[in-house]
Amino acid sequence: MAAPLPSLVDDNPRYMKSFQVFLDSSSEHQSIKAFINGPLAEILASIVKGKTALNVMGVGSGSGEIDLEILRQLQLQHPGAKVDNEVVEPSSDMLQKYKDLVAKTPDLDHVTFTWNNMKTSELEKDWKERNPEKKMDFIHMIQALYYVEDTEAAILFFQSLLEKNGKLLLILVSGEGSWAKLWKTYGLQFGKTDISQSVTMGDIRSLLDSRRIPYQKHELPSKMDITSCFTSGDEKGELLLDFLTEVPDFSKNASPELRAGVLDLLRGPDCTQEVDGRIIFNNNLEALLLGP
User: Fold this and answer.
1) Which residues does the record give as substrate binding sites (predicted)?
2) What is the pLDDT of residues 50-63, one digit of tens each?
């Protein structure tokens, strides 16, 4: 039996480089920001109505750009409200980037930050010891459920922290998009089995439906240019392949058969279409909003 492939989440420098190439190649952040400043704005307005202080939590917040967009929208809805913002991020490098971003952002006078450099599983134990009675008005987990050991337990834990009118926002790749096709086909050959790397919003909706947990659904169209993946040795293309498969140096570490199969799937109509000579990957996302 072949040795398991290394995981990108265990190679932080390579992960940071590949993640940046992913952001540069995709419209993901633009799509999420459009949602925050569109449909989510009205929902946030209903949460802050009548409140002078808000408890907010970002789970898997990364380097903070999306978190700050949410905080700006909250402040637009209620300029005078004080915001207590809990940040949960296991990567020290990402957390430092977030702190640096906050230091350069002038319009956060009413926001205080609590930095939790830990995994969600560690947070649950820490929270019960530190803040057992504290409830949250808004919690967001944006592209974070891939890195938890038990998605159901994580969702139920964060849902349990919500105030009476609070909301939990989940954003993941669509269950019908190209990520789902790639990971349903090859995920068992790619990744670590102790985290939920291959989960999609289709899986989460099935889970919530089975427990009769109601939710609001929003679709977030997004795309990614992966043309460079098909030029052997192209640095940008190799980093994108690493991010798509969650395997560092995928082209070197994967068998020739696995690499060929992945590229063939990525080039096929189930995952991509050619637009003006570029190969465009379906990077569509879904957002779900849950109550307490």
Assistant:
1) 28, 283
2) 888 999 999 999 89
CA distance 20 to 239: 9
Residue type (1 letter), 282: N
Q: Where are the alpha helices (DSSP H) in 78-143?
A: 92-103, 120-130
How many Cβ atoms from other residues are within 10 Å of residue 6's Cβ? 17
End-to-end CA distance of the chain: 46
Residue positions in the annotated binding site for substrate?
28, 283
- The amino acid occupying position 187 is G
Beta bridge partners of 56: 85, 138
Rg (CA), the chain: 19
Nearest to 288 by CA among 229, 210, 206: 206
Alpha-carbon distance 261 to 57, whole Å? 40
The β-bridge relationship of strands 53-59 and 82-88 is parallel
What kind and span of H or E run contains 111? strand 111-116
> Which amino acids are annotated as binding site, given as ranges?
28, 283
DSSP secondary structure of 215-227: -EEEEE--EEE-G
239 pLDDT higher than 50: yes
> CB 105: neighbour CB atoms within 10 A?
13
Find out whether 118 and 90 touch, Cβ atoms under 8 Å.
yes
Lowest average pLDDT, out of 43-57, 200-214, 216-230, goes to: 43-57
- The structure tokens listed for 134 are 């504290």
Nearest-angstrom CA–CA distance, 20 and 35: 21
Q: Which of 15, 174, 140 is nearest to 69 (CA)?
A: 140
What is the DSSP code (8-state) at residue 254? Answer: S
All domains in the chain, ordered by first residue? 8-174+193-224+284-290 (3.40.50.150)
Q: Which residues pair with 174 in a beta bridge?
A: none
CA separation for the pair 25, 239 (Å, rounded): 11
